[in-house]
Amino acid sequence: MTDLPSGLAIERGEQTARELDLSRPSRAAVIGLVVAFFAWVVLVALSEPIGRAWGSGLDARSYWVPRLGDPYANANWTTVAAYVYSPAFLQLVAPIASLAWQPFFAIWTAILLVALRFLTGPRLLLFGIAFSALELIGGNISLLLAVAIVVGFRYPAAWAFVLLTKITPGIGLLWFVVRGEWRNLAIALGATGLVVLVSGLSMPAAWVEWFGVLTNIAGRDGTWAAVPIPFAVRLPFAVALVVWGARTDRRWTVPVAAMLALPALWYGGLTMLLAVIALREPARPASSSGGDGSRIAVGGRASA
């Protein structure tokens, strides 16, 4: 009898030690954060002077140069600083786009690194930085698309970001159609429509112009910086993949299909595959997930 309290104390001590160990950041997590900081410093430093041959932020210039007064002054897709997204996206980034180039790119790169951390979690951040190096150097929105898709399983309104930027990766919404999740589909489309309505009230001419821009660039492929597989070839595979994934409860197929459905599969766009890390755990039934049957796995651990 006298040994029982000491045994319980040892067991509780071991449990506390395990909890403390889990709460401490791993060596990989610390190294990842340090590398992320230095990557941010280097990328921001290389962004000046703007326009030099080996500078960073070439893609990000497409979000900094256009102005709300004339968003499609340069809508020649695949040229430097061309803008072909919806007016709503330009309105979204307008507060930081009003800054000088280097402060803008500093904030923009920080946003991308936060998105990367969300997708990989702390332990795989270093891998994520290496895998997304081209995307971070260019400053495109592939990482943000991946985040929107991951979040979209829990909050379908996040799909508005996809539909109002790259558009065609919205093929991932077939997940809701195949599974009969009509409420989620309605939320995604309704949120997109609401953004269009609100934005259109302040920039009606720009929205009309945007539809003309989309018509002009339809069917055009990317440059040497894109995987040389035409959109028309990739699209059927994207549709088949997301349909199969929806039927077999494999959420990771959605970001992969969305990536395949990019208008041009830029090499930086491959970073959308990092969403697979966040979605690698299958969705659980509503009885075990807290009510709505949707969970988001961030960095390999599902979170309700």
Overview of the molecule:
By secondary structure, the protein is mainly alpha-helical. It has one domain (22-303). The chain contains 16 helices and two strands. It has helices spanning 3-23, 27-46, 61-64, 87-97, 101-120, 125-131, 133-138, 142-152, 159-163, 174-178, 182-202, 204-217, 231-248, 253-260, 275-278, 286-289; strands spanning 296-298, 301-303. The protein has a two-stranded antiparallel ribbon. Helix 2 (27-46) packs antiparallel against helix 5 (101-120), helix 5 (101-120) packs across helix 6 and helix 13 (231-248) runs antiparallel to helix 14 (253-260). It is globular, with a radius of gyration of 22 Å. Mean pLDDT is 86; it is low at 16-22, 282-295 and 297-304.
Jot down its keywords.
mainly alpha; 304 residues; two-stranded antiparallel ribbon; 16 helices; 59% helix
Write the layout of secondary structure elements.
Layout (H helix, E strand, L loop, with lengths): L2 H21 L3 H20 L14 H4 L22 H11 L3 H20 L4 H7 L1 H6 L3 H11 L6 H5 L10 H5 L3 H21 L1 H14 L13 H18 L4 H8 L14 H4 L7 H4 L6 E3 L2 E3 L1
Antiparallel strand pairs: 1-2
Number of strands: 2
Distance between the termini: 43 Å
The poorly predicted ranges are 16-22, 282-295, 297-304
**Helix segment count?**
16
- What count of structural domains? 1
Provide the helix percentage: 55-70%
Order of helices and strands: HHHHHHHHHHHHHHHHEE
Provide the structure class.
mainly alpha
Rg over CA atoms, rounded to whole Å, is 22 Å
Taken from the alpha-carbon principal axes, the silhouette is: globular
Relative strand content: under 5%
Which quaternary structure do these chains form?
single chain
Main sheet: strands, sense, barrel: 2 strands, antiparallel
